[in-house]
Every structure is written in structure tokens, then in C-alpha cells.
Amino acid sequence: MRSRDFSVAMLESIDSGLRGHLLRSDGQEDLAFGLYRTVIGASRDTALLTQIILPVDDDRLVHGNVSFGAAYLERVLNIARQMNAGVFFIHSHPHGRGWQGMSEDDEIAERRLAPAALAATSLPLVGLTMGGGDFRYSARRWQRAEIRVYHRQDAESVRVVGDHLSVSLPPRSVLPNSAFDRTELVWGKAGREVLTRLRLGIVGLGSVGSVVGEISARTGIERLTLVDGDRTELLNLDRTLNADKSSIGEYKCDVAAIALTAHAPASIEIKVVNEKCDNDEAYAALLDCDFIFCCVDRPWARRILNQLSYANAIPISNGGLLARMRKGRFIGADWHVHTVGPTRRCLQCWKAFDQTDAALDRDGLLDDPSYVKELDPNSPLVAHANAMPFAMNVASLQFMQFAAMVLGPIHNLGDCNFHAATGTTDVTADPGCLAGCVYSTITGDPGSIPPLKAR
Predict the structure, then answer these.
(1) Are residues 150 and 111 in contact, defined by beta-carbon separation less than 8 angstroms?
(2) Of 3.40.50.720, 3.40.140.10, 3.30.460.40, 3.30.70.920, which CATH number belongs to 5-168?
């Protein structure tokens, strides 16, 4: 059987702590242990680093290279058992740059640690190396094949999540593709490769999500996960890219997947989940992603994605749109676009959803005509006016938020609020979550499982 894919993630606070300890002023190597929790997706396990356990007293000996004592390891294993967490081990290459290989001594050291970590925690040892030249990581886990035999599985990526989405990737040979010559003039070859190798999710394949998908495919994104439980209707055709009369009755995700596969200038792998995001299969598929686009306007879906983002350290770009009419005439439209995730203001604090409205949506009341008719017709809960130019603008801004978070030069663009009537944009800097926000308390805790819809 094919082994499940594997990646590593950490918050910026963990990255900062590791840098502060491992990058010594004397230029020597150093090491540390820590704890991780596993994010179990549909096809990928992610080791989310949650705690650094620094050495004390005589726990390790620095002598050009570095070694540790048995007491340090035993202390780490005891804490891991108490916390029901896995163990990671990291050492530094002070002058290394990029994804670091392993020397024979490095491999022997981690292979010897693997049985103790597995016996104490029932989870595989995760090993990491930090290159001090550019603060990049490499990572692997040690899987037991049989008694006293452990195989190394290299991670596909290591992501650091905060204002900046910093990603370390193993080197690979890439065949030139002249279809991307103009795109690479914008982001550079290395920058475009980082963007395209990330796993992206799109929730909602309607007016905005269908355009985000097209942008992603034509940029060269290699792996996309599409989540939407709705089928195409006649009223979708004026705003949904790649949908036509023959698409009516087909799942929106299926329509998009066929078109994106045909339009992508390079090979693309598309996973389709024809369910809403509170479905177990859909939720697991989204846990495989490194970044997600929220292209839905329902409060329950946004509440689910908000919790997923903070608990599992997966940034999410969100776009919201409201068009207004008065006596049958257009008077204006506004759309907000922002990216949320650990260290950033969440969807609830941006007022992208309200907990009460989310509960109404969860219980099906927003689909109940007798309930909806009592609501203000201008309420965002029931106002569905939209147009293709608006949707395309929102989609473009959402993708630009993603590119900025990964490549910069400014990583956190805050909340961009465009006013169609005046053609102006307001930008609100991201001040972080409000005091008492519940989502800041679950940051980096993949055990925070959302209650699923009971209907």
C-alpha cells in the first residue's frame, strides 16, 4: 500500500523559539526536542509542532557537533506521555541553506531515537533540520516497518504560519514550460514554484470560487481540492465560469474540475468532494491543504472554516460581497477580502459571520421560506444580488492575498474593502482578534473538532 503523505507545520512563535535556541552566536550546531500533534487529513498526515522542550543544565554537550544525554530524552518522553503528544527532534546546520540532506551520523542518531519515541507515544519520531543560512527547514518521520527496522519518510513541505506563510520544500527537477514565461516575469521562477507546489482548497464553486479555480489552474497550481455540495442551476449561469446550459443538474465541483483540467497549462491533480464543508469527508480533505479559499456566503460554513483554520494552522482567504438596490435601481456594492489564520484577526472578529446566524444556518432555518420571509430583504443572510464583474474582482483579490502571504513583499494586506459606486478601496490594517475571542484559544490545537451539522 502507498504510504500516506506527510508534512510539518508550525506557528511563527515556534519558529521564533527554535531560531532563538538553535542559531548560536559561536556558529556551532545545537539541538532540541519538542512535541507535536497530528492533523489527520484524507490523504496526508501533518505534524503540527506545538511545544519546544529546551535543554537545561547538562542535557546536551556542544562540541562543534552536538550530543544529548539520556536524562534529557527521558524528560521529553515523560512530558510527551503526559500530554498525549508525539516527539520531534531538531538540530541545526548553522550555515546551511535550503532543504538540508542528512549525513550518515544524522540518520543513525534519529534512527536510534525512533523506537523510544514510538514506544512512549505510539507516534513516529519526527526529525527536523534547520539551515541557519536562510532559516529553512527539512523534515522526515520514522515509520516502523518491522521489529527494530524503521524507514525514513521525507516530508513534502514544512510550513510556518503567521502573518507570513513561509514554506520549505525539498528540491526537485522541473522541466521548463514556456506557457508560464509571463507569469514567471511577475513572481520569478522560484516564487511561482513555491506557489504552485502548495496544496490549495476552494470551498464554494459558484461565482467567486469558479474564478479562483481558473486563476489557480492557469497559474500552474499542481493540486487543488474542490468542495461544494450544490448542483448547477439556471440562475447560476450568468455568474459561474465554465458553466453552461449542459451543466444544469451537474455538481458545481464536477463542472469546474473538467474545465480546469482542460485549461491548465501543466499537469494538475484535482480532488472533488461534492459535499458541504461540515461533512466529514470534506473536512478531512481540507485538512490536506496548505491554504484554503472561502468562497461561500453562508455563516455556518464560515464558522466551520474559521475553526479549521485556527486549530490546524491553515490560512484561509475570505471574500464577502453585498450589492444594494433601491426602487429597482443599483445604488452600490461593497466587497471585503481578507486572509485569516493564526496571529491574524479571525472571520468572527472581522464580522464575516455571527455565531447566532451560524446556528440558524446550521439548523436549516435560512433554507426555510417561512422563516426567510420574515427577515429584512437587505440582510446579508438573504440578499443574493451579484454580477460577474463583482465576482471576478473578489476572486482576483483573494488570490492576490494568497500570493502576498507567501511571497510578499507585504505579507498581511489586512481587510480590503472595495466600493463599486465610488470606485474606491479602503484598507484596514489587521489588528488581530478582539479580546476574549474563543478562536485564539484553540490556535494550534487540532483536537478542536467542530460540531457537525445534525441534518
Answers:
(1) yes
(2) 3.40.140.10
Least confident among 96-110, 260-274, 440-454: 440-454
DSSP string for residues in 348-397: TTTTS--HHHHHHHHTTGGG-HHHHTTS-TTSTTT-----HHHHHHHHHH
User: Which grid cell is 228?
Assistant: 461544494
178-442 classified as CATH 3.40.50.720 = yes
Q: Are 295 and 203 in contact (CB under 8 A)?
A: yes
- State how beta strands 223-227 and 199-203 pair: parallel
**Every domain range in the chain assigned CATH 3.40.50.720:** 178-442
**Rounded to an integer, what distance in angstroms lies between the CA atom of residue 243 and that of residue 388?**
13
Q: Which amino acid is at 284?
A: A
Cis peptide before 450 (omega within 30 of 0): no
Tell me the pLDDT tens digit for each residue of 268-295.
Answer: 999 999 999 999 999 999 999 999 999 9
Rounded CA gap, 208 and 243, in Å? 13
| Residues contacting residue 144 through CB under 8 Å, at least 6 positions apart | 114, 115, 118, 124, 150, 151
Whether the ω angle into residue 409 lies within 30 degrees of 0, i.e. cis, is yes
Side chain identity at residue 454, one-letter code: A
340 close to 161: Cβ distance less than 8 angstroms:
no
Can you tell me whether residue 161 is helix, strand or coil? strand
Question: pTM for this one?
Answer: 0.94
pLDDT given at position 2: 56
| Cα 92 to Cα 214: distance, rounded to the nearest angstrom | 41
